[in-house]
Every structure is written in C-alpha cells, then in structure tokens.
C-alpha cells in the first residue's frame, strides 16, 4: 500500500475510436503533475458504455500515450496494485457499491419503462422544465421494491436531496456550487447490471486512491452527483481539477469535423513529439522565464496549476508549425535522422539527403512534406519543355545549346565540389552574357523539376556528375523532340 499523501493521477478514457488528441492533452497534465510530485500516473479504461466501446480502441490509446512519451505507471496493460483497471472487469464492485447505497437509503430501485421515462421527459420539456426523472419510484416501499427487484428489470438511482447547495473547491477555479434541485436522480446501475459513468468513476477513483482528479471541464456539471456519492459512501473527495478543453480557431470545441482530432494525425504529418507536447502546454501555460520552446522535463520541473490559464486553448496549427521548425533546428542530428527516416522516401540515397539536410532544416515545417521536397533526389524529374523555355527566356534551339554547354562545363571539372561547380557555371554565365536568374533557374528546373530547392550548386554536388549529366541530356532531348 502506498502512503495516503502520494500523488496519484489518472486518465480514464472510453475506448470509442481512434485516440483523441484531447486525451493526450489531458494525459500531459496528469503525467506532468504526477512526475513532478514523485507520484504515479494511472490509466483506467472506462468501457461500460457497451454500445460505444470499440475493441481495438484500447490498444491504440496505449500506443498513442507511449508514442508521446506519457507512459502510465499503472493500467490494464501495465499492471499495478489497484487493478483490475478496466471497468468491465470490475462489475461486481459496482453492484456491491450500488447495493450499499440501497441499504443505507441513498439510492433506490426504479422500475419505470423506457416509454414512461420518455413521456415524463416530453411532458417536462413542454412545460419548459429540464428533462429530469420525476422520482416516481423513490416513494416505493423499500422492502417491497427489493422483493420486486428479484424478478423485475430495474435500474438503481441516486437519491438527490432537496433544496441543498452542493459545493466543491476546484483546484483551478475555486468554489463551484450547484443547486441540488436541478440535479437529476441519476441512474447508477443500469438494467443490464453495468454501472453508469457516475457510479463507476467515483468508486474507482476512491479505490484506486486517486489523489487528484484532473479532467476536462465538460465534467464540471457531473461533479455534484459525484459529490453526493462521496458523501454517501463517507469517502474523502480527491482534489478536483477541471482543465480547459482544446478549441478550434473559431473557439468551438475541437471536433472531428473541424480540427485534427486524432492523436496520430500529428505523427503522420511529421510533427515531432517534442513540438506537439510543447505546443499543447503553451496553449494553457507560460514558461516562467518566458521561454517558448521547452521540454517535457522542463514542464515537470516548472509546471504549476496555479499558473494555468483557463481561456479556451486554441489549436492554432500555425503556432505548431512554428514550434515544429524550432524543434527541427534544435534536435540532435542523430535523433533527428532517425525520425526523418520514417518520412524520407526509401529511394532517396542517404548520402544525397545528408549533404542537403542543413538547407532543409531551416525550411521544413512538417516531415510529411519531405517526399515532395526530396523526390528529385531519387528519381529523374519530368520537366515539360514549355516550362523550361519559359524559365530560360531563350529560343528552343539556343536553350538546347546552352544545356549542352552546361554539360560540357561540368564534365570538364577536375574536382566535383560545390565551389568548383559554382565557379565554372558562373564563368559560363558571364561568358554567354546571360542573366543569373534564367541561367541558373534553367539548370535547376532541368535537373530537379522544381523551381525551389536548396542552393543549386549544393544540389548538383549532392546528385553527382553522372546523374546531373544524364538529366541535362534528357531535358535537351525532350526539347528537340
Ligand atoms: N470516461 C470519461 C471520458 O471518457 C472520463 C471522465 C473523467 O475523467 O472523469 O472522458
Ligand atoms: Zn421509476
């Protein structure tokens, strides 16, 4: 058993699809807070909504957490002293706890049919009332109801007190109060014996000794139900901390329709893990020294919920692009090349790419742009004669002659180096009285098929004489066809 004062945080995702970037955002703060205090970060799988659960979703949540370097200390995959960590493996516990509430008079059996419940809902809505249960079964005789429950389908509901103010102190927002009169007699145990979120989350957070419930602000409105459960079970309330939700640039809640909601989208675009974590942190927190670029370790040292700002954090991808660039320039080359390998087309020869990398490093935004930017390092480009003529501003015949002269000049070089290539081609340009732009752009286009590349002479050097000559000949042949 761990000491009472140990910091234990958790994320409690429902496995309903691909891992959401919001889960990673949440996990970041849970992880950082636990590590900062020498505590433990736990993952619990909340899979009691059987209609929504997707079997593969659990494994990809672990994959995403590990990919982002936020590996839990305890969980279904990781073990621990407080398992099982998957709610569908804990059904007996929820039933026992629901029973305890029945016995203590804080919960009751409800036998209402779905038809009756929807009539009640409709009638209330027509009268402009919130769609709450009308407490029809709350007045049943407990002994009779218990007997009836032996044979008849039922749910178990929470007894919410009348005319009370329910208050808790949120770690970020201070005291938050609710009138109990607008809190529904929530279903705790469904007719299939599965718990609802509200019962399961309270039972589990308590039994798993969670010290800080750090979760999204969308759960604030559920908290009064949880407060009552903690009270009825006679348990201490953990510190509740409701963090702001990620938003689209138009401030709407981040959703599939708008933003890039999958945690893997960022990986597949080639945003570096360091950049994504750094980016998410800067959405809600400023480094105390004003640094914009910082690591997960920096966060563990310095992060403090007191300095978290609550305005909706915006998924501003321009900012992420900028941070990714910062990280591309900062990461150690060895680490970086590893990451680049995943995006670099296999056909690109490593030595060509390495020679040119310093020029890409300053320009590259996302690693997913690499194939387009580097394709010419692997394969001969398709260059249309029209585009070449337009760039060169020469007659077709003159252009063909020029390309032949370039080939000759390069072939006669004694050493194949950026500087010797540059000197020779500049001499040729002067001798032919060409303007630099058409003279060099024409070569670039003929050899790479692109009008924007790293500096031309570096590109030629990296490609090697043989390839360059082959491509110049090809361009020339196409012109004269
Ligand atoms: N299962 C809930 C979710 O999917 C967990 C909410 C909580 O953290 O209490 O977000
Ligand atoms: Zn009922």
Describe the overall structure.
The chain is mainly alpha-helical. Among the domains are: 91-243, Rossmann fold (3-Layer(aba) Sandwich), CATH 3.40.50.620; 380-479, Arc Repressor Mutant, subunit A (Orthogonal Bundle), CATH 1.10.10. It is 48% helix and 9% strand. It has helices spanning 21-36, 57-67, 91-103, 114-126, 142-151, 197-207, 223-233, 263-268, 273-284, 296-302, 317-330, 333-341, 350-361, 370-378, 385-392, 396-411, 418-431, 436-448, 456-463, 465-480; strands at residues 8-11, 40-43, 107-110, 155-158, 165-170, 174-179, 187-189, 212-216, 239-243. A 3-stranded antiparallel β-sheet has the order 3-4-7. Strands 1-2 form a two-stranded parallel sheet. Strands 5-6 form a two-stranded antiparallel sheet. The longest helix has 16 residues, at 21-36. The radius of gyration is 32 Å and the shape is elongated. The N and C termini lie far apart (82 Å). The relative contact order is 0.08. The model has no long low-confidence stretch (mean pLDDT 94). Bound molecules: glutamic acid and zinc ion (ZN). Zinc ion is lined by residues 110-112, 136-137.
């Amino acid at each position: 058993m761990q000491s009472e004062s140990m910091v234990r945080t958790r994320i409690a995702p429902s496995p309903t699809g691909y891992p959401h970037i919001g889960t990673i955002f949440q996990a970041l703060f849970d992880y950082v807070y636990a590590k900062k205090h020498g505590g433990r970060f736990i993952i619990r799988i909340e899979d009691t909504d059987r209609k929504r659960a997707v079997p593969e979703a659990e494994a990809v949540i672990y994959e995403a957490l590990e990919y982002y370097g936020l590996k839990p200390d305890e969980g279904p995959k990781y073990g621990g002293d407080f398992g099982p960590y998957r709610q569908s493996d804990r059904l007996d516990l929820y039933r026992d706890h629901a029973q305890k509430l029945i016995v203590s008079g804080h919960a009751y059996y409800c036998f209402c049919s779905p038809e009756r419940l929807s009539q009640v809902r409709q009638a209330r809505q027509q009268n402009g009332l919130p769609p709450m249960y009308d407490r029809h079964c709350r007045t049943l005789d407990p002994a009779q109801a218990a007997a009836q429950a032996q044979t008849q389908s039922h749910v178990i509901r929470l007894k919410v007190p009348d005319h009370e103010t329910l208050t808790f102190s949120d770690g970020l927002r201070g005291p938050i109060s609710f009138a109990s009169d607008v809190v529904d007699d929530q279903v705790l145990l469904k007719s299939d014996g599965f718990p609802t979120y509200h019962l399961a989350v309270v039972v589990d957070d308590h039994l798993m000794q969670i010290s800080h419930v750090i979760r999204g602000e969308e759960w604030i409105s559920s908290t009064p139900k949880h407060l009552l459960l903690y009270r009825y079970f006679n348990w201490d309330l953990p510190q509740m901390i409701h963090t702001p939700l990620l938003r689209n640039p138009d401030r709407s809640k981040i959703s599939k329709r708008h933003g890039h909601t999958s945690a893997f989208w960022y990986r597949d675009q080639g945003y570096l893990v360091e950049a994504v974590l750094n980016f998410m942190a800067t959405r809600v927190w400023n480094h105390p020294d004003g640094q914009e670029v910082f690591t997960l370790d920096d966060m563990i040292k310095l992060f403090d919920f007191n300095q978290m700002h609550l305005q909706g954090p915006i998924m501003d991808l321009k900012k992420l692009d900028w941070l990714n660039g910062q990280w591309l320039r900062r990461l150690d080359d060895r680490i970086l090349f590893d990451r680049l390998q995943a995006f670099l087309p296999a056909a690109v020869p490593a030595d060509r790419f390495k020679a040119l990398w310093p020029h890409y490093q300053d320009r590259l935004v996302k690693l997913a742009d690499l194939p387009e930017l580097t394709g010419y390092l692997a394969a001969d480009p398709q260059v249309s004669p029209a585009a070449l003529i337009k760039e060169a501003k020469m007659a077709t015949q003159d252009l063909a002659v020029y390309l032949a002269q370039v080939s000759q000049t390069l072939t006669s070089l004694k050493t194949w180096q950026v500087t010797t290539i540059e000197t020779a081609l500049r001499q040729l340009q002067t001798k032919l009285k060409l303007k630099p732009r058409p003279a060099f752009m024409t070569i670039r286009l003929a050899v790479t098929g692109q009008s924007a590349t790293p500096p031309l002479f570096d590109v030629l050097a990296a490609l090697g004489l043989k390839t360059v000559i082959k491509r110049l000949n090809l361009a020339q042949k196409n012109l004269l066809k």
